[in-house]
């Protein structure tokens, strides 16, 4: 799908923009505004695939058909329960308390659209968390970092101290799996 034309990133995420910049991809941002509420009985993997595709489709509809659009979505999966973006500090606290001292999955789906054709793929990684001390948790919550992140933490930010190990690709946890993007865009693999 590599056309050489600038890509439209259907996301306001600075983390996704940073990953694309590191890949040397030229892009502009046109974020999608869609309802991200999970459907009844929807699994975390189904959710991210549906939302990545919906974001891609919504933004592609605003551009000429020959525009390359990339949409993505990430969620945290705790035994099949979806941990999206917390609604407030108390919600973030409850999420992080549940993640403390255990392993969870992070799923990120990516969808690309060009000339009326779409392709989507998903990648998952397992994250092992250390037990989180209550005082350390409160200091982290005070940073505000947790409020716009799936699962209430940023593995690349202050919450890195909570992460014992990532099994899988770190960029999947950050929100844009490089290997999937390279594959969908037809870029040479650098990772």
Q: Concise description?
A:
The protein has 191 residues and is α/β, with parallel strands linked by helices. It has six helices and seven strands; from the N terminus they run E-H-E-H-E-E-H-E-E-H-E-H-H.
Structure, described:
The structure is a single chain. With 191 residues, this protein is α/β, with parallel strands linked by helices. It has one domain: Maf protein (Alpha-Beta Complex). The chain has six helices and seven strands. Strands 1, 2, 3, 4, 5, 6 and 7 form a seven-stranded mixed β-sheet that branches. The two termini are 19 Å apart.
Quaternary organisation = single chain
The CATH topology is Maf protein
Strand content: 25-35%
First-last Cα distance: 19 Å
Rg = 17 Å
CATH architecture: Alpha-Beta Complex
Q: How does the overall form come out from the CA principal axes? A: globular
The helical percent reads 25-40%
What structural category do the secondary elements indicate? alpha/beta
Q: How many β-strand stretches? A: 7
Major sheet description: 7 strands, mixed
Q: Averaged pLDDT, please?
A: 94
SSE order in H/E notation? EHEHEEHEEHEHH
CATH first level: Alpha Beta
How many discrete structural domains? 1
Q: What's the tally of helices?
A: 6
Low-confidence stretches: none
